[in-house]
Design goal:
The protein has five helices and 14 strands. A hairpin with a 6-residue loop joins β13 and β14.
Length: 242
Amino acid sequence: MKNNYKLRKVSIKLIGAMALLIALLATPIVNHVTVSASSFHYQIKKSGYVYKNTNIKAIKSHSAKHYFGSHKLTVKKTIVVKRHGKKLVYKYVLASNGRNGWVNTKYVKKVKTAKHNKVSKTHKKGQYVPNKENIKAEFKKLLDPYLAKYGKTYGVTNGDSIKPLTDRSGYGSEFVVTSGNYVSSDKEIAKVLFNGLLNGTLMSYLKDNSNVSVVVDHIDIDNSYGTTDARLYLTWYWDISK
């Protein structure tokens, strides 16, 4: 009798352990993403010069919009410079990609944002793996009508007076990111990237008559925080004779 009692007790424990294991396997993996609670951020509302230091003489870029792109901007310092009997205010702007410089305050706009505390997203392992070539193809479908409208072409343009717009590392001068947007397909990534570009610097490049063509030079994918983020770089080719 005692042996039967012990056997029943062991059986109950085994059944309980198996039930717990099944429940754990069926539970989806949850990634907790903490979102910034800042009540405002900054934007470049109009292109102006970006200066290297507080002397406001050495120019780092002739276009603040092109230089900072669509990255998140913060203002670290403000200075007042006297020039020709006038007081000019400059702000030290720092982008999330590390780019920085002094910009006249009339070109910098403070924008209010909604406050968020904590966002929980549920993702299953192996649910989506981005394909860079597919993303490029979907992005090109969205871009082509705009290129046709403004007389631009897609692809590398060669010639004695043609120069690529790239930074020192060879990356395209125009870029966009999906950061902060949940995406689950190549088509969604392409759409988010294109909309970000359309609401950012794309139109200024299209309306510039010296720009003749553009190409997606590369895409970076980042899955380090449990979500899929993409960064797309465009290289524009411009005719220096125009």
